[in-house]
Amino acid sequence: MPDTFKAWIGRDETAATGGLTFGDIEPKVFEADDVDVAVVYSGICGTDVSALGGEFGPIAPFGPRVAGHEVVGRVIRKGSAVTHLSVGDFVGVGAQADCCRQCKWCVEERVNYCTKMTVTYGGSKYQRGAAKAAKQQSYGGFAKHWRGSAKFAVKIPTGLDPALAAPLCCGGLTVYAPLRRWGAGTQRARNVGVVGIGGLGHMAILIAKGMGAHVTAISRGTSKRDDAFRLGADAYIATSENTRADFKQHRRSLDLIICTINPPELPLNDYLGLLAPEGQMVLVGVVLSPMDLMSGSLIANATGVSGSVIGTPEELGELFALAASGGVKPWINKVDMDDINQAIPAAKAGKAKYRYVLVNKDNGGVV
Question: I need a surface site. Which of 133, 228, 315, 346 has the fewest CB within 10 A?
Answer without folding.
Answer: 133
